[in-house]
Design a protein that fits this description.
401 residues, alpha+beta, Immunoglobulin-like, 7-stranded mixed sheet, 5-stranded mixed sheet, 9 helices, 28% helix, transmembrane
Amino acid sequence: MKWIRYEHGFRSIHQGMAITVMFFLYAFIYMQVWLAACFAAVFAMLAFQNIYFSKVGQGLSVKFRAKQKRILIGDGEELVLEFENGTVPIWNGTLTLSLEDAVAPSSDNKKHYSGIYDLTVPFAIGGNKKTEIRIPLEGKKRGLSRVTRVMLEIPHLFGDGFVNMELNEPIYYQSLVYPKVTPLGRELKSSPYKPGETEQKQSLFMDAFQPIGTRDYIPTDRFDQIHWTASARMQKLQTKEFLPVSSQSVVLIMNAIEKDRGFLDFEKKLERLVSYADYCMKNDIPYSVAINIRSFGGKPYLLLPSGSGKVQFQKVMVMLAKISDKHAKLPYEEMLWHLESHGELPQTVVLITHENNRVKALAKQWQKRYEVILDNSHERNERIWDNQQKETGTDSTYLNV
């Protein structure tokens, strides 16, 4: 394993060795046996230190037990590092890990504005030995946390100085901290104007594979809908009745551009989007997600294709954990026009955005063809919504599918 070494204090060791040699020769010439022995002992001590620190850390390797962890805000995880050393032992060292501050020790309640958290732990390992270091961490905020740097500081045994070793290899470890999951507080109704699989009391479409009974025949009924067995039993014509169904598919479109002077506007919109996704998952409603963050590929914005169930919810949470308000963004109206022109809109459209006259005008136009929900509850009813936030039954078992 490759390490970059930074050595401090070796010049003073070399100077001390040269001075002790001079005083040893002076004492030896003048027959000062005890004085010469003292200088010889000091020289041996400095020489041992010089040899030790020139070889310490050779053969040291580190391995992260897990490559990726998925947790919710407030949940704990354990970062496990496995070290294997060469022939030279390491004493009284200090290990420093630099983490992106989505996770931090649970006892740390301070705000870190740099985005990086430096965690230090004592470190020691014998020659040709293995050791394991476990660091308990807690999810502090939504986001992606990676280990950006691993450094080991080994102080000199005698006098000032130290050796710094920095890991010079890629670190394949990251923690995904998912956003909060809060109840939606409303229902999404299916569309009666498109055929589908969702049961609805009033619909223009019937599911021919789900008969629910019979009724008296009327002249407008089709011939193939007559139930002949029931007609013979009732001595009059009976028509089959089927379960009325309709289409219930949703697209969640979030505006990643923050409102002017909107504190945590981006994070609140994400939490609102997760509330809709959680509702769709629990009611088995197919849904897709679109966010106006620039992306490479066929679409210039982030688009998660339609899906349902726990697998789709886990995909949404992973995507939301990896995005940031610092990413490049596309104008919201441009993304809406692109979705409409490419036929990406289902019957129910949820627009999660702040107040915008152009968006309101477009939503009013879409209401002639779609069921449009313009959701700006994160800013209009901000205090009420914040007070009603309670964690649902969704936990990390849904997120590790």
